[in-house]
Design a protein that fits this description.
With 393 residues, the protein is an all-alpha fold. It is built from 15 helices and no strands.
Length: 393
């Protein structure tokens, strides 16, 4: 079961890495993006190497009992350093490169210490899940275990404090990401703390290995998930919010497009509908279709009807935006139901100056026009005689 959890965590982390890889190819010289990808990649490696089936495979293929242990510890150490480097790049400042170099040098020394300790120690009995407590009293192997746990704890503690402290200074998606990252780092600290407690208990002659085999992996898995989410939220959040806004606007414009549907179809004014596209692309397509129809009807817009409707709505409600939308809805409905033939532009109403079409409605106005048409319950295509949007006179 633990192996399945490890592989699932690895897959989730590498999925996040796959999301960011295209951006890395486009901006390969961006140190921040490189740090993100390294953190996600190394976190996945940690879970992959820490899974019991992988541990057995590495030991068997290498012929060295417990070789998977220093490899896993090294990946955890590298992940710890990469997490702190990410926060440093994320926040920026004049001393970024100097601070990054210090962290990299410090954790390079930890990696060397892990390798040397394992080479000097003896761990002949393979332990796939409880090596930390089984060899907690073995010379050099114990030092290797404590070294990687303290290195990991130091990095995630600094990351937690830095993230939560910075979160108080910012807002929006960045704040949400920092809070999630800080919580994930705190869970990762729980991994090291429970491991260290189990090791210390072994020194005292007690067997608390269950802490290292059950509680620690759970804390690490939750920490990895929260860390990945925290990293991706500030990047994906604004895009997701934009997609939601675009989809909402796209949906709200449907009554207006439906009113113009007959004209768009008969005069071939609608572009091909995009398939498998983002909400933003669909919104642009719908807005383009509407503007094509309005441009076609430009000459037939009745400025007198526009002014009468706008004045009546403004007098009734005192809302300029509502009055403008009601006036546009009235002249659009009037122009659509007026006499026209396919292939010919409608006859103008004869007011060369100040036509409503000279003031092309923007996206916000289009949404209000669509709402007016929806409220009036205007059927698609031509409007039945005598039916006008609310506010028309």
């Amino acid at each position: 079961m633990s192996g399945l959890i490890n592989y699932a965590s690895c897959g989730a982390l590498w999925l996040g890495l796959g999301v960011k890889t295209p951006d890395l190819f486009r901006h390969r010289h961006d140190p921040y993006l490189r740090a993100i990808c390294v953190v996600l990649g190394l976190a996945g490696v940690c879970f992959l190497l820490g899974a019991a089936p992988t541990v057995g495979a590495v030991n068997r293929l290498s012929g060295v009992p417990n070789l998977a242990a220093p490899l896993t510890y090294a990946s955890i150490t590298a992940y710890s350093a990469a997490s702190q480097v990410l926060v440093v790049h994320w926040r920026g400042g004049p001393r970024v490169h100097r601070v990054v170099r210090r962290w990299m040098v410090a954790y390079a020394c930890v990696l060397v210490g892990i390798a040397v300790s394992f080479a000097l120690g003896r761990a002949p009995v393979e332990r796939r899940t409880d090596l930390d407590t089984y060899y907690a009293t073995t010379p050099f192997i114990a030092e290797m275990i404590v070294l990687y746990l303290l290195g990991h704890l130091a990095a995630v503690s600094v990351t937690t404090v830095s993230s939560l402290r910075w979160a108080r200074e910012v807002g929006g998606w960045l704040r949400a990401g920092l809070l999630t990252l800080g919580l994930g780092s705190l869970c990762n600290a729980g991994y090291s703390v429970t491991k260290l407690i189990a090791v210390a208990a072994r020194w005292c002659g007690r067997d608390w290995s269950a802490l290292g085999t059950t509680v620690s992996p759970a804390a690490a898995g939750l920490g990895a998930l929260l860390t990945s989410v925290g990293i991706l939220v500030p990047l994906a959040g604004p895009r997701l919010a934009e997609w939601l806004r675009s989809w909402r606007t796209y949906t709200r414009l449907e009554p207006l497009e439906r009113e113009l549907d007959d004209l768009l179809t008969r005069c071939a004014l609608r572009l091909p509908r995009p398939r498998w596209s983002s909400p933003t692309t669909r919104l642009v397509w719908r807005q383009t279709s509407i503007h094509n129809a309005l441009s076609y009807l430009d000459a037939s817009f009745d400025p007198a009807l526009y002014e009468r409707t706008r004045g009546a709505a403004l007098e009734a409600t005192g809302d300029k935006e509502h009055a403008e939308a009601a006036a546009w809805a009235a002249v659009i409905t009037s122009a659509v139901r007026g006499p026209w033939e396919p292939g010919r532009r409608p006859a103008p109403h004869g007011h060369p100056e100040g036509r409503p079409g000279d003031r092309v409605p923007g996206p916000a106005v289009l949404v209000r026009i669509a709402a007016e048409l929806e409220t009036a319950g205007a059927p698609s295509g031509h409007v039945r005689g005598g039916t006008t949007p609310s506010g028309a006179v």
